[in-house]
Amino acid sequence: MQNHVVLTACIAEAQPLRFTPAGLPAIELRLEHSSQQQEAGQNRDVKAAMKAVAFGAMAERLAKQSIGSLWRFTGFLATPRNGKHAVLHVQDIQPD
Prior knowledge:
Blueprint: E1 5-14, E2 18-19, E3 25-39, E4 42-55, H1 57-63, E5 70-78, E6 87-95
Parallel strand pairs: 4-6
Antiparallel strand pairs: 1-3, 1-5, 2-3, 3-4, 5-6
């Protein structure tokens, strides 16, 4: 099975860098995406907002990025134990 997401989005919000009980750096983000996509032969304006998290060195790297900066995020989706919506777990970012 595959669970691989690539999303171009800007960092809309970032919580302060925190540390898990095991001492791992962690950060929570809200990402915003806007594009035009083809659907059923028609152009469609698409907007999406999504929660994201990162751990370790990736969390430290994301904590240094500016709000509003645009990136290509790569990772996977998972639903937290107490959550209802999938969250993007960021494994890599590249400038867009």
